[in-house]
Amino acid sequence: MSSNEAFKSRLTELGIVSPKHAKVRGLNKQQQELVYAYRLGKLDEKTFQFHLLEDPALAEWVRRVLEAASHDPLRK
Predict the structure, then answer these.
(1) Which of 8, 12, 56, 65 is 20 to 30 A off residue 40, Cα-Cα?
(2) What is the pLDDT of residue 56?
(3) Among the listed residues 55, 66, 51, 56, the one whose alpha carbon sits nearest the alpha carbon of residue 17
(4) 67: confidence class by pLDDT, cuts 50, 70, 90
(5) CA separation for the pair 27, 15 (Å, rounded)
């Protein structure tokens, strides 16, 4: 199992991402670590938002996960 697959599996186990949406898009190792640190409370909101502004791919992944969780598109 690749590290990306292991990360997605861990997100699913933690209830962060449902199995259906775990394969939305692969994240690189740094992006995975940022998401995991944020979910564990080791990264504050301001810092996480900064990373989202600097990394469009990470921001898109977060947007898709949030949309999937809410069943409501965040943009029209």
Answers:
(1) 56
(2) 93
(3) 66
(4) confident
(5) 18
pTM for the full predicted model: 0.60
Give the CA distances from residue 14 to residues 7, 11, 19, 57, 72, in Å, rounded to whole numbers and listed in that order.
11, 5, 11, 22, 22
Q: Which of 68, 44, 49, 67 is nearest to 59 (CA)?
A: 49
Question: Helix, strand or coil for residue 73?
Answer: coil
DSSP letter assigned to residue 48: H
The contacts of residue 52 (CB under 8 Å, 6+ apart) are 58, 59, 62
The 8 Å CB, 24+ separation contacts for 47-54 are none
Q: What is the DSSP string of 6-41?
A: HHHHHHHHTTSS-TTTTTS----HHHHHHHHHHHTT
